[in-house]
Amino acid sequence: MTTDPSAWEPAPLAEVADLFSRAGCTWWIAGGHAIELAVGHAIREHGDIDVLLLREDQHAAQHVLAGWEWWAADPPGKLRPWLPDEYLPMGVHDIWCRPEPGKPWRLQVMLDEGQDGLWVSRRDTAVHRPVAELGAISTAGIPYLRPEVQLYYKAKSPRPKDETDLTAVLPTLGPAQRIWLAEAILATYGDHPWVHRLEVPARHRRPPQADLLDDLPYDWEQR
User: Is the Cβ–Cβ distance between 167 and 161 less than 8 Å?
Assistant: First the structure.
């Protein structure tokens, strides 16, 4: 039974959306596919496809992928079987899924934290926002992670494909989205070249002194 991490044959976006339409909870397409849904067209090739769930909803993945194999990255970087009804604790964030043993991986489920109606970044608890404002819906009706949130995660160690995603989606980001992303990056990673590309006012190019979103009104219509 192979767990080769390079053996990927990503499921089509429409297939993944159809599977998770039966999840019975909130979910979002994440990763590079989320960026493409935000800009409305293809940008590049993808080596995988990601779905984000809140940790409390993790068993929805076992429900919609009944009959599949589920492997948890536990500890990170090492895959082991995720048992039916097993609750994955904080520290376990990635689940690799495939229809049967020996087949290529088809999708990855990512778990993030939620508390009292807030999404809380697993990388920095000062970075948070209401769960209801975490995603958007594409013209095809597919939920996806808002680009500024996805870019926040990509900013940790940007790869060439992440730079491609930033370049593609940057023109679509409104002022409030740019400010949120700049402050989130500074709070978690410190000074970063992406902050300068966001072209936010100088006062938002310094690490914030308070939790993000506490004082910043967020207007999703500023596009």
Answer: no
